Amino acid sequence: MQLNGYKPKIVAFCCNWCSYAGADLAGSSRFTYPDNVKIIRVPCSCRVDPVFILRAFGGGADGVMICGCHPGDCHYTSGNYHTRRRMKLLFSMLDYLGIEKERMKLIWISASEGEKFASAATDFMNTVARLGENRRLGDLRCKSKTEQN
Amino acid sequence: MQKQNGTELKNKAKQLLQNKTVDRVAGFCAGEFAYDPSPCVFYSAEEIEENMIYDCFCSPNFSKFLVKETKKPGRIAVFMKPCDTYSLNQLITEHKIDKDKIYIAGIGCDGMVDVFKLRNKTGSAILKASCDNGALTVKTPDGDMTFAFDEVLAERCLVCKSKKHVYYDELLCEPSFETDTGRFDKVEQIEKMSADARYEFFRSELSKCIRCNACRDACPACTCETCVFGESSSGAESRENANEFEEKLFHIIRAYHVAGRCTDCGECSRVCPQRIPLHLLNRKFILDINRFYGVYQAGETVGQIPPLTDKNESDPEV
After folding, report:
1. Which residues pair with B138 in a beta bridge?
2. Is domain A10-137 classified as CATH 3.40.50.960?
3. Which of A87, B160, B177, B247 is the most exposed place for a label (fewest CB within 10 A)?
4. Do A50 and B235 touch (CB under 8 A)?
5. Model pTM?
6. Tens of each residue's pLDDT in chain A, 149 residues
7. Beta carbons of A88 and B243 less than 8 Å apart
8. What is d(CA B232, CA B216) in angstroms, rounded to the nearest whole number?
9. Structural domain boundaries of chain B?
10. Residue A143 touches partner B, C-beta closer than 8 Å
11. How confident is the model at residue B226 (pLDDT cuts 50, 70, 90)?
């Protein structure tokens, strides 16, 4: 999917128990979602350290989404409640530093919500595409020569 | 202007050693310059008599230093300002400090001098400095100068969070409950700026960082034995920042790792050789925690559950 020839890079951290299975279901149910969403499987959304998110941006991502089980459904009982608090603070801090908070998203997707995964990924992709390239939290060395200019 | 003077502290320290309440006393001895007293440990009354000092430049927070000091045998006495006791309480909560090995004498505080501010104002070498009666008198090669205390007070002291000692074995001053609520004003002011202005502000501030790690080393909440900034796999190992991204990564993560445990003691900004207002990041986290999860002051009592360890089903969504 492209917007004026620009194709953002999206990293999606997906919880093994819900969202990853949700993404899998999206595929097996033949719902399409943008091919520039790169999925990283994590044991729980709570495993996502703020460093991972920052490094994803540093490594060239234009948007990062974290997908976890719905509140109350965590495989480890309470992991997603912790994720919620952590991400709320992290996103608020990035916004404070002037970095567009629309580039980050926390979303709850269960294993049966393949369609929700596909539509959330598409929506997020469109939002990020409108924002354009991530320049505020990127490591220039990760960009190609033409992108740097 | 401190409420206890050097002589009172000396006598107290000697008394504690002589009646065997403690085996050693942590305090300050004169440093290379008039404005940089060095922390040191005294083992005898003679050493105390000879070397111990206390003035309005003795601002270091001794809490973190007690983490290592309490692993040694014997009991140590420490004089603490109100703000230091918050950090101490937080460390006791985290089981980093053994309460039985410390003896805390609470001392009153009216704020400490910001050496950078003072040096900017004097514009020349400071040969001698003395503070009394709400004024600071400085001897320089160009003659004597006097400053009102408010002019040279550290930022963290101008918006002092509390004058209340939350932990002590003995209080040498009158108990006080004064608190200030103005410490989030600057954060709120920045929040009102446009995203571009905020970005430019922090970019220019953080670009001054030389990655000396002083903020991490001085922070009483940073007590991990293996730090993420020492691990090469973290992508943020101990080295100079290679670019803007690494500056941001370091400072966001440094502040984030102490979120919920930061007592807002202001040591990070005090020790920064580049004068980066690091407390603005920490205060943002404190303010957000207060807004989202209820007012929380780290270190207020022993045994509190930090907000990032806690959870609630009714927490606001991101």
Report:
1. B129, B145
2. yes
3. B177
4. no
5. 0.92
6. 555 678 899 999 999 999 999 999 999 999 999 999 999 999 999 999 999 999 999 888 999 999 999 999 999 999 999 999 999 999 999 999 999 999 999 999 999 999 999 999 999 999 999 998 888 887 766 665 555 54
7. no
8. 17
9. 6-114+158-171, 115-152, 182-293
10. no
11. confident
CB B249 within 8 A of CB B224: no
By CA distance, what is B257's nearest residue in A?
A50
Place of tokens 């045998």: B73
Residue B77, φ and ψ in degrees, nearest 5: -100, 140
Query: In Å, how far is A88's CA from the nearest CA of chain B?
Result: 5
Question: Which residue type does A69 have?
Answer: C
Task: Decide: residue B189, CB within 10 A, 0-12 exposed, 13-18 middle, 19+ buried.
Answer: exposed
Chain B residues with CB under 8 Å of a chain A CB are 190-191, 195-203, 228, 234-236, 242-243, 245-246, 248-249, 252-253, 255-256, 259, 281, 284-285, 288-289, 292-293, 307-308, 311-313, 315-318
Contact assessment for residue B247 and residue B281, using Cβ atoms and an 8 Å cutoff: no
* B253: CB partners within 8 A, 6+ apart: A50, A51, A54, B228, B229, B236
CA angle (A134, A136, A138) in 5-degree steps: 65
pLDDT tens sequence across B100-132:
999 999 998 888 999 999 988 888 888 888 887
- The identity of residue B19, as a single letter, is N
